[in-house]
Automatic annotation (TrEMBL):
Pfam families: Myb_DNA-binding (PF00249). It is found in: Nucleus. Residues 9-61, 62-112 form the Myb-like domain. Gene3D superfamilies: Homeodomain-like. Coiled coil: none annotated. This is Transcription factor MYB51. It comes from Hibiscus syriacus (Rose of Sharon). Residues 9-65, 66-116 form the HTH myb-type domain. One of its GO terms (biological process) is regulation of cutin biosynthetic process.
Length: 367
DNA sequence: AAGACGTACAACCGCAGTATG
DNA sequence: TCATACTGCGGTTGTACGTCT
């Protein structure tokens, strides 16, 4: 045991990193790997302690991290897992590809916690704040069951996170997403991280977790931000109905706009060119992620099955709201707002159908 | 225009766990 | 078994920036 008093050392720089420092650190790690963090600063010519270098790398410079706004789905995941795990940010982070625990923690503290509070939900207990009975809707047995389940899940998720760390397993989102929404895909990923969500939430528990009430409220809160431009869509009368109103056709027809950044609303757009400029828009969000169909650019009537299990995802363009989408943008994103991805680890690229299934899987847990 | 205030986020700090000799 | 080095984690702080008065 013991800790290294690196910050006590004289002459080491503290505070914000400069671009030059970032460049030095990046260049060194790219060339040599980080190796021993303690030895790194001297080798890289940095007046920083190893700990500071490590944090900078992990939370900011690492190439495989996603920065920018959190998608609705990511928010849901955070809330869900926070209800189960509490402030176990690292465990939560294992379920949000490319997000760091620090970023999630900050996001929770600055956004989600406040929003839950405004919704009348205690962000610590995930229960409604004002309850004349002094408890939530569940009875003592439910609460006990919930507590038991939460403990069980907590232990399991942490074990899973540890396994992932130890095995340096890189999750495979396309496959895992299919699993998470209950696809029939055969899976060897019983140890993959998202499979936990699958097993945790698709296998109906005896009682409905309290956190689901929070999610339901969250869903209503967020979908309530949608405004419909025309009347030809079902008017949302309840949170669940409003969710159903967000059907792909409505999205495709551009019948409503949002006043907040929405994660991924249209499914997948297939572009004929890798630069996306010859985009032939095609959204078919009525299909699951593993059964999407692409329209040929040359012949829009010709459909070609897209083998999502295949390797060629280079032509798939998805709207990366986290990086490109700004607030107050309309749902019909211009092509410039589309970002190319090889579909490797982009959580926001799930289809609406998959998104809907995700919600259904959570909200239909009542036994 | 300028100071006060609030917000968001990067970074710091210290504790705890693990690895190693 | 123990001491030390190292890493991971979560709470907290510092600061830049935007908004308000």
């Amino acid at each position: 045991m013991g800790r290294s008093p690196c910050f006590d050392k004289v002459g080491l720089k503290k505070g914000p990193w400069t671009p030059e420092e970032d460049q030095k650190l990046l260049a060194f790690i790219e060339q040599h790997g980080h190796g021993s963090w303690r030895a790194l600063p001297a080798k890289a010519g940095l007046q920083r302690c190893g700990k500071s270098c490590r944090l900078r790398w992990i939370n900011y410079l690492r190439p495989d991290i996603k920065r920018g706004m959190f998608s609705l789905r990511e928010e849901q995941t955070i809330i869900q897992l926070h209800a189960l795990l509490g402030n176990k940010w690292s465990a939560i982070a294992t379920h949000l590809p490319k997000r760091t625990d620090n970023e999630i923690k900050n996001y929770w503290n600055t956004h989600l916690k406040k929003r839950l509070s405004k919704m009348g939900i205690d962000p610590v207990t995930h229960k409604p704040k004002t309850d004349p009975l002094g408890s939530t809707t569940g009875n003592a047995k439910d609460a006990a069951n919930l507590s038991h389940m939460a403990q069980w899940e907590s232990a399991r998720l942490e074990a899973e996170a540890r396994f992932v760390r130890e095995s340096k397993l890189v999750s495979n989102p396309p496959q895992n997403l299919q699993i998470a929404v209950g696809s029939s895909s055969s899976s060897s990923s019983s140890t993959s991280v998202p499979s936990l969500i699958n097993t945790a939430f698709l296998a109906p528990p005896k009682t409905r977790p309290q956190c689901l009430e929070v999610l339901k409220a969250w869903q209503g809160e967020v979908t309530g931000l949608f405004t419909f431009k025309t009347d030809n869509l079902q008017s949302p009368t309840s949170t669940l109905n409003s969710m159903e109103s967000m059907l792909p056709n409505g999205l495709i027809n551009d019948n409503f706009v949002t006043n907040f950044p929405v994660p991924y609303k249209g499914g997948v757009e297939y572009c004929s060119g890798s630069d996306g400029k010859n985009k032939e828009t095609l959204l078919d969000t009525t299909m699951g992620l593993n059964e999407m169909v692409a329209w040929s650019h040359q012949d829009p009537h010709k459909k070609e099955n897209m083998n999502m299990e295949g390797n060629n995802y280079s032509d798939i363009m998805v709207w990366d709201s986290c990086n490109d989408h700004q607030q107050n943008s309309s749902i019909a994103a211009p092509c410039e707002n589309l970002k190319e991805t090889n579909y490797d680890g982009d959580y926001s690229s799930s289809s609406f159908e998959e998104y809907k299934n995700y919600w259904n899987s959570i909200l239909n847990l009542e036994s």
